Amino acid sequence: MKVLYDTILKAKYTGRPNRFVVTLDLNGESVLAHLPNPGRMWELLFTGVTMYIVPHDKPDAKTKYRVVGIERDGVVIMLDTNYSNDVAQHLIENKLIPGWEEWRIVRREYTVKLHGTSSRFDLLLTNDKDDEFLLEVKSCTLFSKTGAMFPDAITERGRKHLLHLKELQNEGYHTGVLFLVQWDKAQWFLPDYHTDLEFAKTFKEVAPSLDWKAVAVAWDETFTMPTVTHECSYPSSILDTEAHDSGVYVMVMHLDHDLDLEVGSKGLMHFKAGYYMYVGSAKANLTKRIERHKRKRKKMHWHLDYFRGHCEMIAGLPIRTSLDDAECALADAVRGVAEWDVPKFGSSDCDCKSHLFGMTENPIHNKKFMDVVEDYRMNKLDVLVK
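Now predict its structure.
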């Protein structure tokens, strides 16, 4: 069995200065490592988690090491997207993907031109009938306890790729997508309609036309080529009920100084320096509501409008759901992980103590907070999957 790396070291994650670089504690020494994965990975990157790195094989590289994997709950996860096509080729050549045993690899990085548009696909496959199968390979690192979703950031390029695959299918090609779910506990797979609703809508439209699979693979510390543990189910009916531009959200903000502020009819309110989480809801146009909250210049309407002009916006986290009582339930869950709240802020029309909560650490890097987000985005779907 092929081992992908000669020397693998363990280090502890300490930070991420930019999308492609992380800081690590390697046996007491602070080092930089290249992260060959552009995903947000907010659900994985927490201070102190174990990362797997290898010495950089390029002598002129800006970092001494390169990240290959990470641990979640003691399970090894592959992060190095450079090897996604290698893994896909290994699984296909060894007939480890259920239903694709007839296919074999012809070429990698295959370009097709249709109606003046060129697209490059990861793999070209064929079979004994000389059929051509154009295959895209995606690495999925967004998980819950038993589920997986893709993508973890908005990808217009990925959405257009899906449309082009369907177009080529209509022209007589055999086309599809292989999602490598790097978490062998995942039992189901869905497009992440919370993060990228347009990708999810497109996926729902084209999925019946494509030959696609989401397979869960298992890794160990040697990063030997994995096997497929199982194919993930596709509970598409969830998209019918949940994948709409409505639901609840959390706005994450940073206030770098103590502040006394007049907030509409509530009068003078005190906010201490720190990170804040505001919980709200929108029965329609959830995306526009979040974008409005991000803007500083606007007509004052909600309590948050007054506070927004004095803080830095970190992120807006949509949670698309059909549940009627999700806003107050989410506020209660966020309150459970927060260090303080601002009494009656944003909760004038309900019985909640507050909908604005604070903590000293950036919530995006706080595992307890991100567990709440994961719970409301994914774990609560387990009931619907069953």
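Residues 156-170 form the longest helix (15 residues).
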